Each structure stands twice: as C-alpha cells, then as structure tokens.
Amino acid sequence: MRAFLGNPCRFDLPPCALTIGNFDGVHLGHQRMLARLRDEADARGLPTALLTFEPHPREFFAKGQPPARLAVLRDKLQFLAQGNLVDYVFIYRFNHAFSRMAAEDFVQQVLLQELKSRYLLIGDDFQFGADRKGNFELLQNCRDFVTEAMPSVLVAGERASSTLVRDRLAAGDLDSAARLLGRPYQVSGKVMHGQKLGRTIGFPTANVHLPHRRPPLEGVFVVQVDTPHGRLGGVASLGKNPTVTDSQHYKLEVHLFDYQGELYGQRLTVHFLHKLRDEARYDDLNELVAQIERDAASAKTYLNSLQRDQA
C-alpha cells in the first residue's frame, strides 16, 4: 500500500477504482466496502484507491468541540496496510478552501484530473462539495467513470457505522463495538513521562500519549497491550484522574501484569476488552489503592477466563 499527501499528479499513477470517506475505525462496513471495491477493480484491471481527509471534516466544522475520533491517521493507515485492503490512499487536507469547492469542480478536478477515477464506489448516503450539494445522481451522470452505491452493511441486524461504534464505546458496551469493528477497540501511542505516582503506590503505569483531546470511551478497563516484549495483559484507566488532578485533559494509564522495566518512548497498542467501572473520585490515596487492587484482581480473573475459553 502507498499513501500520498495532497495532489498525487506528480507521481504519474495509473487510473484507479476509488472509494471516498473518512473510514474512521475501519469497521466491518468499511472492510466489506473495500472488499467489493477490490472485486470491481480486479474485473477492470485497476488498482484500488481510497480518498480520505485530514482533519476529519466533522472536526473542521466542529471548531472547539470536535467529536471523538476512533483512530488517528497513523493507525488507520497501518490497519489498511496490514490487511492489504487497498493499494493507494490519497490524503487531502480538509480546509476552508476545500470545504467550499463546488461539487462539479470536485468531480472534474479531484476525481478526474488528479485521481484518474474510472470506477467509483460510494456509500448509500454519500454527499460532497460545498453545502453538500453533490450526491449519487450527480456522480452517476458523469460518463467518464462508472459510479455504484454500496448498500448499508448490517452486523447483528444493525447498520455498521463509525457513529454507532462511538455510541457503543461511550456506553461501555465493548462487546458490541468489537462486533462492529471486527476486532476489539484499540488505541496506540508512545509512552510519555507522567507524575510517576503509580510506582509509589505499588502500581507502576505506562502513560500512553493520546493524540486527540476527546477519546470515545472513559473508565477503567481490562486490556491486552502489544509491547516490544510481546502482548501482555493489564488494567487501564482512561479519563481525567479526578483523585490526583483537577486537569481537564484525558490520560491513558496502563498497569501491565507480570512486567517490570522501562517503556518510555516505546509505542504501545492497547486493546480494550472489557469495562470494569466508570472513573470515580476518592477522598484519599488509600481508598484509591484499595480500588486499584480490586480492579487488578477483576482484570486478572477476566483474562484467565478468556485464556481458558481460547484454549
């Protein structure tokens, strides 16, 4: 897979079979769309391509209150590459000028001149261009490429969507979110220096950098973590740590079982398996430590049960 920032004309790429969207989280609906795109592209002798945007248009229009994002661009690209889901990813910067581009200009300039689209697969609710005036009918009237619409993908009777995944994560329903994603929800980031309070109370934690201000879930969770030393079980807190700070910034702190050592500067991927509880404020550190001990015991019980089920 190759990724391109901005106008790809300078790379002299061949015509492609294209789909468009943010593909936040790359859930099962996205995956099935890319599988269909691959089939159609193979039948036409074309490579597959995805046009996506940074920042997410909803983040751009939301100003100071952006919606929770499921995955950063790095993680999205990594998942697409690992699954061999698409050949090219075109990343266009979403700014004021781009948001005001007329739908007809988007078709001529971006889809035809820059991306050389010959086949286009879009979602059944796709709209584009200034004031969202572009739609399936406009695309279908363009004779320079074939346009088809992908019907909604149902998972357990529900339409797979990034919005539904966010809702389920916010509600703490990680099993439902995992069904929609086709895998447990995950967050990756580098381990940063923090207050180092955990090591003073017997529970050292890895402080994983969160690239976005607002995560899609909060609370205390059973996790499995991909580290340079393999996949390890643990318990994680994702929130504002109200007992020890009044900061409004979210933090992801992970206590790994059966591990001792430094992880500063290392990139970890945290897989969220089960929610134990919401965050809470405690009157003193002794109450907090007692609760962490209970959380760790519950997490170990869950992981042991999971291991038995998988054996």
Automatic annotation (TrEMBL):
Taxonomy, superkingdom = Bacteria
A family per Pfam = Flavokinase
Q: Does the keyword Transmembrane apply?
A: no
Q: Which residues form a coiled coil?
A: 275-309
Which reactions are catalysed by this chain?
Answer: FMN + ATP + H(+) = FAD + diphosphate; riboflavin + ATP = FMN + ADP + H(+)
Alphabetized UniProt keyword annotations: ATP-binding, Coiled coil, FAD, Flavoprotein, FMN, Kinase, Multifunctional enzyme, Nucleotide-binding, Nucleotidyltransferase, Transferase
GO terms (molecular function) for this protein are:
FMN adenylyltransferase activity; riboflavin kinase activity
- Report whether GTP-binding shows up as a keyword of the record: no
Q: EC number(s) per UniProt?
A: 2.7.1.26, 2.7.7.2
CDD domains, per this entry? Answer: FAD_synthetase_N
Limits of the Riboflavin kinase domain:
180-304
Q: What EC class is this?
A: transferase
Pathway info: Cofactor biosynthesis; FMN biosynthesis; FMN from riboflavin (ATP route): step 1/1; Cofactor biosynthesis; FAD biosynthesis; FAD from FMN: step 1/1
What is its biological role? Catalyzes the phosphorylation of riboflavin to FMN followed by the adenylation of FMN to FAD.
The UniProt entry's sequence similarity note says: Belongs to the ribF family.
Question: What is the protein name given in its UniProt record?
Answer: Riboflavin biosynthesis protein
Q: Which organism is it from?
A: Vogesella oryzagri
